[in-house]
Amino acid sequence: TLAEKGGYDHFMEKEINEQPQSIKSALAGRIENGYPTIKELDSIKDFIKNDLEKIYIVACGTSYHAGYSMKYFVEAYSNINISLEVASEFRYMNPHVDDKTLVIAVSQSGETIDTLEGIRLAKQKGAHVLAMSNVVGSTIPRESHSVVYMNTGPEIGVAATKTYTAQISILYAIAAQIMNWKGYYTEEVKKIISELELIPDIYKEILSKKDHILELAREYTHYKHMMFIGRGFGYTASLEGALKLKEISYINANGYQAGELKHGPIALLDESFPVFAIVPFNGLREKMISNIMEVKARKARVIAISTKGDEKIKKITNEYIEVPKTSEAISPLTVAPVTQLFAYYVAILRNLDPDKPRNLAKSVTVE
Ligand code: G6P
């Protein structure tokens, strides 16, 4: 009913717009004065400090993309390696997991069968399993050694939105806690963690531009294909941007590392194949500008997400959306509401129901 949807047309729209509050509740009590305070990790503090040698993140779909940002964050600011695996691969591999390994299972529903089987395997091999889920008492948390719940409230739309941004936020807080205990809590890490607390206000600003995003989406509804490109944290954001679009609009969309264009994907491009470039203001911006020029030389239309005030990106793209400047590591969070709204508007302009995409389920409990 309309009441359940809080006056919005769809749950997906409601959940996108809820993100200033959902991030706030996800982070409540978990960051204080620039330091992580995740009490659920206290019982494994000694394990992390003294024994931990390896970290795996195991997840599917959007949860996997949230894990990707955590991997980039931890590896950028520490010497800790993270192996990131899609659960349906992990469970049939010979993962090098032992009693010095922390396996982080990221699952919004806590019921995804591949992720569940992945943690069962990890437990057999002696790993410590930490689950992150939005559903209290669901199977994956019940079978894990430790649990961090997301506290974002139920998500009804099949395509994950508010739980994705909550996952990144909490995974960053977990990452910070681990880096702190492992002796990597630099000023840079502290700054990033402090910026997490600004996300609710940043989201209000981004969401206030939704009419602009609707107008841009109108320009892209008739294409059959679309490519999302980025580098570094922009790459992890491009994976999720492409997934959202394909899930609910059925436009063939894939995310690529912009540097990989020349190794294949660029062969696809022409005027019928637009590119969504994710260009937060960072060390790789100049490289992204070169990639955009290459794409334009193939006559592909370019829409970009850039940082406020980036005049150069405005000049060289057909359409652009600006987001506030943050640390680079935070950019997957500033990009997300834009690509979510973009996918949502493309879907409704194509007369599709974004809450019930064909062939997809909210939670995949059979293999
Ligand atoms: C399904 C959903 C996705 C979700 C994925 C993993 O495919 O449609 O939105 O990302 O499962 O779900 P989980 O509950 O494990 O995060």
From TrEMBL:
Swiss-Prot/TrEMBL catalytic activity: D-fructose 6-phosphate + L-glutamine = D-glucosamine 6-phosphate + L-glutamate
Ranges of residues in domain SIS: 44-184, 216-357
EC number from the UniProt entry: 2.6.1.16
Enzyme class (EC, first level): transferase
GO cellular component: cytosol
Full protein name: Glutamine--fructose-6-phosphate aminotransferase [isomerizing]
Function summary: Catalyzes the first step in hexosamine metabolism, converting fructose-6P into glucosamine-6P using glutamine as a nitrogen source.
Residues of the full protein shown: 242 to 608 of 608
GO molecular function: carbohydrate derivative binding; glutamine-fructose-6-phosphate transaminase (isomerizing) activity
GO BP annotations listed: amino sugar biosynthetic process; carbohydrate metabolic process; fructose 6-phosphate metabolic process; protein N-linked glycosylation; UDP-N-acetylglucosamine metabolic process
Subcellular location: Cytoplasm
Keyword annotations of the record: Aminotransferase, Cytoplasm, Glutamine amidotransferase, Repeat, Transferase
Subunit text: Homodimer.
Active-site residues, Swiss-Prot/TrEMBL: 362
